[in-house]
Write a structure and sequence with these properties.
alpha/beta, Rossmann fold, six-stranded parallel sheet, five-stranded parallel sheet
Length: 430
């Protein structure tokens, strides 16, 4: 794992941002999307035969199969079922509170000019849940529950089929717990294309959300503008800022590293001695149950420890990295909190481990990665809502002022029909 001094960071970051996109991946995703758009269900099945563990004849999972999975979850794994129920309760409570921030209103901007806002959900949402190396059971809750809290009347879930032709049964059970309406056994870029375009079996979604691999992420990027999206996510990442507890820092870095060989576990540490201690604990962790090949590859390829004893410099570097997860493990975190601008979720104090945000604290774990927290926040109710505006006018000084201002602006822009349209509404007409 690489150790840098803070003074070396800018050059390191310059080299990182020069890495090009893989053209072979882009070409493959473009082929998949074109095939799904042209061939519908048959296109989805063709790519499933190539990329998934099976290609089921029927893409939709029967309702009874979903309900059976939930019953099996409660019967065979009651502790997991209880944990998911607790997580669902907290995710729903947080989403409901978010929804309260969006309200309908009518506001008299000036006499005779009433502006209105109406908040409405999209008609249909698609939630993608990965089922590859690690089936992300919790992502079913994270995607479905905010959509339902926003009032979306039809929420669909798509997840890759296993050998039996169905998604992982625990994902199905979590979907049932969350309240999903329909489930489809389809994965990868072909799932994103099917949800975006619609097929004979899969209705077209207005919004698609959820994490995925680089093929899913690129499919979402290429479909930007054709369908609503949460954001384009890359490999997961964490930045831990710490002035102590090297064993906790190492544990949190390993937790991130085990997700994906391309995951980015990084830390800003207050001293060289702390960095060396973290390295020792990482080596111990790799020798134990957390030492799989995925974690080793992540730490070797993307792991980074930065020695930065200066608070101002640490904040500057953190905002450049714009991490998906930002952990603040310092003795007195409060002076730091308001200084950060770029992160997906902030975990304040050593007890607030990122793993709690992943699963059970109520925050959504679908967050912006690869520095996109510079301009985007995490998945929330707002991704499923539209703020519609309306205007009402009646005679009054504010109305007359608005008409005259519109005439002047239209004239300046060289749009005479606009000017006439406004002027006709003035007292006495044009």
């Amino acid at each position: 794992m690489r150790i840098l001094q803070a003074s070396e960071f800018d050059e390191y970051w310059r080299r990182q941002t020069e890495k090009p996109q893989d053209p072979a991946v882009r070409a493959q995703v473009e082929e998949i999307l074109a095939g799904v758009r042209a061939e519908g269900d048959e296109g989805v099945k063709k790519f499933a035969r190539h990329f998934d563990k099976s290609s089921p004849e029927s893409l939709e999972v029967p309702r009874e199969k979903i309900d059976q999975a939930y019953a099996r979850l409660r019967g065979q794994e009651p502790e997991l079922a209880g944990a998911l129920a607790l997580a669902a309760k907290r995710i729903r409570a947080f989403a409901d509170r978010q929804k309260e921030q969006f309200e309908n209103f009518t506001y008299e901007i000036a006499p005779g000019v009433l502006a209105e806002q109406r908040v409405v959900p999209v008609s249909r949402a698609g939630v993608y849940v990965p089922g590859g190396r690690f089936p992300l059971i919790s992502s079913a809750l994270m995607g479905v529950i905010p959509a339902l809290a926003g009032g979306v009347p039809e929420v669909m879930l798509a997840s890759p089929p296993l050998e039996d032709g169905f998604p992982d049964w625990r994902i199905l059970g979590a979907g049932a717990l969350a309240g999903v309406h329909r489930v489809f056994a389809v994965g990868g870029a072909q799932a994103i294309g099917a949800l975006a375009f619609g097929t004979e079996s899969i209705p077209r979604a207005d919004v698609i959300v959820g994490p995925g691999n680089k093929y899913v992420a690129l499919a979402k990027q290429l479909l930007f503008g054709a369908v609503g999206l949460d954001f384009v996510a890359g490999p997961t990442d964490v930045l831990v800022i710490s002035d102590g507890k090297p064993d906790w820092v190492a544990a949190d870095l390993l937790a991130q590293a085990e997700h994906d060989p391309e995951a980015k576990p990084r830390a800003l540490l207050s001293s060289p001695a702390l960095a060396e201690a973290v390295l020792r604990h990482l080596e111990e962790g790799l020798a134990g149950p957390a030492g799989g090949e995925t974690a080793r590859a992540s730490l070797a390829g993307e792991g980074l420890l930065i020695v930065s004893p200066n608070m101002e410099e640490s904040i500057r570097i953190a905002d450049i990295l714009a991490p998906e997860h930002l952990e603040l493990h310092v003795a007195d975190p409060e002076p730091w909190v308001s200084r950060f601008r770029n992160y997906g979720s902030l975990f304040i104090g050593s007890l607030a481990g990122e793993v709690l945000g992943d699963y059970s604290a109520g925050l959504n774990h679908t967050l912006p990665t690869s520095g996109t927290a510079r301009f985007s926040g995490g998945l929330s109710v707002r991704h499923f809502l539209k703020t519609l505006t309306a205007l009402r006018c009646s005679p009054g000084t504010g109305f007359t002022e608005s008409v005259r201002a519109a005439e002047h602006i239209a004239l300046a822009e060289g749009l005479p029909a606009h000017r006439k349209s406004a002027g006709l509404r003035a007292p006495g007409g044009v």
